[in-house]
Design goal:
Number of strands: 8
Number of helices: 3
Order of helices and strands: EEEHEEHEHEE
CATH class: Alpha Beta
Shape: globular
Radius of gyration: 15 Å
Strand content: 35-45%
CATH topology: D-tyrosyl-trna(Tyr) Deacylase, Chain: A
CATH architecture: 3-Layer(bba) Sandwich
Length: 150
């Protein structure tokens, strides 16, 4: 499972002209699901995101988590995070989970964040979306959980 986590002052997702998800301060998380990912990995990644310390404390050091800062998550499914560009010029998405499996694990990730007390807004799975990100800092991290072995 792979996540691009961006600390933001605000984020918004539109499908056409409709706003389907929106947050203020928090993280925009672009989430990719590998073909071999599991529910346990989705839950573990949610735990990591909720407790990741990338908000500044009173001294400006990155010591506060999303939970400490009272932030929210705008979670956007993004299968292209598993695009392989090693050969040729067109990415291969063979490592990305099929839509049904990816959507189920995306929901596990979001549900676990909510269970931890994080407000979660989402994009729309399998829709063409416009994502507006007001990156704060900027602070952007890539979190990778290795897929389970076959």
């Amino acid at each position: 499972m792979r996540a691009v986590v961006q600390r933001v002052t605000q984020g918004k997702v539109r499908v056409g002209n409709e706003v389907v998800g929106e947050i203020g301060r928090g993280y925009v998380v672009l989430l990719g699901v590998h073909v071999r990912d599991t529910e346990a990995q989705a839950a573990a990644l949610a735990e990591k995101v909720a407790h990741l310390r990338i908000f500044g404390d009173d001294e400006g050091k990155l010591n506060r988590s999303l939970l400490d800062a009272g932030g929210a998550v705008l979670s956007v499914s993004q299968f292209t995070l598993y695009g392989n560009t090693e050969k040729g010029r067109r990415p291969s998405f063979i490592d990305a989970a099929p839509p049904e499996r990816a959507e189920a694990l995306y929901q596990v990730f979001n549900d676990r964040l909510r269970a931890l007390g994080v407000p979660v807004s989402t994009g729309r799975f399998r829709a063409m979306m416009t994502v507006e990100i007001h990156n704060d800092g900027p602070v952007t991290l890539i979190l990778d959980l290795a897929p389970t072995e076959p």
